Amino acid sequence: MPSADVDTMVLNLMALDLLVLAERLGHLCQGQDICVTTAESCTGGGVASAITAVAGSSNWFETGYVTYSNAAKRRLLGVSDALLTAQGAVSREVVDAMVAGACRESGAQLGVAISGVAGPGGGSAEKPVGTVWLAWGSADASHAECRHFAGDRQAVREQAVREALIGLIRHLSPSEG
Q1: Is the model's pLDDT at 74 over the cut of 50?
Q2: What is the pairing mode between strands 110-116 and 131-137?
């Protein structure tokens, strides 16, 4: 099979995987009467795109924010300039502020925020390419985690979208045992 055909097949499987995750998220949101929001930087709206690929997602998703620049994070989500300067956009504190701002501004009960270094440039010794911070939560409380994804820009972004959806699903899933 030619390489281009294999690449297309792999991309189709990854898209299907995201669709399955987004459908599961929708089922949980509808079952709990929850509306979700997104605040995305390095993924550029990839989580919102995965969510809106699900028919009927407008029942549980109505607003997403792509805040690629620090100015957009300040203007749309209320992230303070002092926080961005002190911590940098790719940090626990900033994604916590992003998810709180997205939930506050949209009225959603649950949100996810993502900020990272997708590459190929822009990394540093402290925050190398592939470093992505994610936060899940509400306007009042959140939980953030740092991930280090391998691969090129597209791979880092896809992994971040997948992790964002999985985290939302975990947040809404009943605890086991």
Answers
A1: yes
A2: antiparallel
